[in-house]
Amino acid sequence: MKRELAKLITGQVFIHACMTGMRLATPLLALQQGYSTLAVGVLLALFSLTQVFMAIPAGRFTDRHGLRRPVQISVTVAILGAGAAIFFPLFPVLCLGALATGGATGFTLIALQRHVGRISSDANQLKETFSWLAIGPAISNFIGPFFAGLLIDHAGAVPADAAGFRAAFVMLTLMPLVAWYWIRQVKEQPMAPLLPEHANARVWDLLKEPLMRRLLLVNWLLSSCWDVHTFVVPVLGHERGFSASVVGTILGSFAVASALIRVVLPWIARRLQEYRLLTGAMILAGVIFGIYPFFESPFAMGVCSVCLGVVLGVVQPMIMSTLHQITPAHRQGEALGLRIMAVNASSVVMPLLFGAAGAVAGVSAVFWVIGTGVASGSPMAWRLRPKKSH
Question: How far apart are CA 84 and CA 51, in angstroms?
């Protein structure tokens, strides 16, 4: 199991890094071309738009087809999306690339998370395997922005010229191929039996479970913290005159911190229940967002980024462990799709709001609003206690 989990994590790193690199390169290119903060917010929102409409059908597809076929489709779409930006670095093409790489990453994530949940034997192993799987996005959140930023600054004759951006897009286009090389080696798991009474089940029936509704709300609030940080740091760095490498390093430090905390998270999770970790994460995230705007140097912003990475790094494994414990085996892919749809629906709207708020009130107000919101949701996390495990 450990060898297969390593292959899954490696594949996840590379396809997710394709998207995270695009999330750095495309807004920087748009800003360089003279587009407004609001336009950049629209561009970033598109990374989540495909997942809003495709997450539930994708979840059902993975329940019926397993791992490899969904990932194969995702890899093809990601290559086309990132590759188009190499030859046509225009704002409409960047938008299409955002739709393609965002959707492909979401589809892959559902397939991987469902597969990992199926190979875990009990609640403790669920927490452990999801903790290891969660290292993948943390690593890719560093690899994608960091190396894309380096290529943008240093691959051309001068920093941030057309050749630098083109080199970054070439690298990002190759990453999904590496992902497919590793994931195609993983053994498929048997499909959960689909009984006649399951045929007419509706996705909204899952929301009848109070724990599911509570879980989705907590997940939405915490995921918004990631969206705010990813959106505001490039804008703030651009306003303060930071280079692409500096912005990529700040975002990368967040990723490294969230990866490192996940290495020790299995040990932590054996001693603290999911709802306790989620409650603490919400309170601390609110505090960090409250003080973040007061730190102006790259080093100070990097320190805040590291602290936020540590706090938010514990979130996803605990969310996924809880979700698999409260969801029937034959509907886990569908439940994962519902979660991703809910999170990304807000990710489409929130960058638009962030962009508008940043243009009117400044980016500091964005930090303070999300900090207040996530901290006020901590009582909801405290009440998040699974009744049973599958």
Answer: 20
Domain residue extents for the chain: 2-184+207-382
Instruction: Give pLDDT tens digits for 82-100.
Output: 999 999 999 999 999 999 9
3-state secondary structure (DSSP) of residue 330:
helix
Residue 384 DSSP symbol: -
Give dist(CA 140, CA 91) in Å, integer: 24
Q: How far apart are CA 225 and CA 206, in angstroms?
A: 25
Residue 196 burial (CB count, 10 A) = 6
Which has more pLDDT, 363 or 55? 55
Q: How far apart, in Å, are the Cα atoms of 33 and each of 24, 26, 154? A: 15, 11, 19
pTM for this entry: 0.75
- Residue 366, C-beta contacts closer than 8 angstroms, at least 6 positions apart: 228, 231, 232, 354, 357, 358
Q: What is the pLDDT of residues 12-58, one digit of tens each?
A: 999 999 999 999 999 999 999 988 888 888 898 888 888 888 888 88
φ, ψ of residue 67 to 5 degrees: the values are -105, -55
Cα 323 to its chain centre, rounded Å, is 17
Count CA within 13 A, CB hemisphere, residue 379: 1
Alpha-carbon distance of 103 to 97, in angstroms, equals: 10
User: Which residue, chain included where needed, has tokens 């965002």?
Assistant: 102
Residue 195 burial class via C-beta count within 10 angstroms: exposed 0-12, middle 13-18, buried 19 and up: exposed
Residue with tokens 């490696």, as numbered in its chain: 10
- Give the Cα separation of 101 and 76 in Å (integer): 10
User: How many CB atoms sit inside 10 A of residue 220's CB?
Assistant: 20
Positive or negative, the CA dihedral 121, 126, 131, 135 is positive
Which value, to the nearest 10 degrees, does the dihedral of the CA atoms of residues 32, 42, 313, 213 take? 180
Q: In terms of CATH architecture, what is 2-184+207-382? A: Up-down Bundle (1.20)
Q: For 155, list phi and psi in degrees, rounded to 5.
A: -80, -20
